Amino acid sequence: MISEARRKELESLCNQFRRDVLQTIHDAHSGHPGGSLSVCEILTVLYLEHAQVYPDAPGREDQDRIVLCKGHAAPMLYRVLAEKGYFSKETMSTLRQVNSVLQGHPCTHTPGVDIPSGPLGIGLSAAQGMALGMRLKALDRYSYAILGDGEIDEGTVWEAAMSAAKFKLDHLIAVIDRNRVQLDGTTDNIMPTDPLDQKWAAFGWNVITCDGHDIAALDQAFTQAKANTGCPTVIIAKTVKGKGVSFMEGKNSWHGAVISDESLALALAELGGT
After folding, report:
1. Cα–Cα distance list, 16 to 111, 133, 242, 266, 268 (Å)
2. Its pTM surpasses 0.90
């Protein structure tokens, strides 16, 4: 269980991550602020508390594998990777520049990235393949897939869900960033998926639901997921698109958008920055 002091430390880091990511997207004149802000605590708790990864030796075979299936949230992934030590925080200023290691979506030339995110819907299959590969090599490591809830409209997600249960991949852990907003509107309007927990359970998965912005709840969810045996686990993390910035929260218009000077100033003020 995470300590109270560590919880507060991670909450403070998340606030800083949000400020840094918004500044980076503003400076790049391009990016996806909404989904980056919603996935902040998920990536922070995973990388800084649970994942067995080695920034000094990213090519090691005996490490956990993490696939950011919702690749448009790359800015937050990059900020967390920088905090973990894969590259300097100053590298964030090169987001989306020619020849930068930090492109609009994760690529394998980015330190700490195992596989490009590709089109939405394929990441879970990739994570499943990694879990199978580690089982064949008798590696006691986990494969994590971070999905968007708009992404699960894709049929390939459910094909992977079905086969992962068939192979009893208890070292495969999926996390759904359940912010209920996608590119063109709300998930309820575009393609309703409730009751989401029952759907995954029907496919043979262990289902955990938690507040995706609560550090302690996420820590407990990951702990429970790793303790599960006999089937894969999905964590449905209830989040808010654009979390932390009032005029971005729940708005699909901030899925992918340029952040103006005025919007940046307002957002940083809300987040306690300048």
Report:
1. 21, 36, 15, 15, 10
2. yes
Residue whose pair of structure tokens reads 């922070």 in the numeric block: 44
Strand (E) or helix (H) holding 238: strand 233-238
69-109 confidence digits (pLDDT tens)? 999 999 999 999 999 999 999 999 999 999 999 999 999 99
- What range defines the domain where residue 74 resides? 4-270
Name the DSSP class of 166.
H
Instruction: Provide the phi-psi class of 118: left if phi over 0, else alpha when psi is between -120 and 50, else beta.
Output: left
**Cα gap 201→198, rounded to integer Å:** 5
Which CATH number covers residue 207? 3.40.50.970
* Total domain count, the chain: 1
Residue 173, helix vs strand vs coil: strand
Q: What is the pLDDT of residue 274?
A: 61
pLDDT tens readout for residues 133-144: 999 999 999 999
Q: How far apart are CA 64 and CA 134, in angstroms?
A: 9
Largest CA distance in the chain: 53
* Nearest Cα to Cα of residue 72 among 49, 51, 96: 96
Cα separation of 171 and 5, whole Å?
29
Dist. CA 186–CA 79, nearest whole Å: 27
Q: How far apart are CA 15 and CA 165, in angstroms?
A: 36
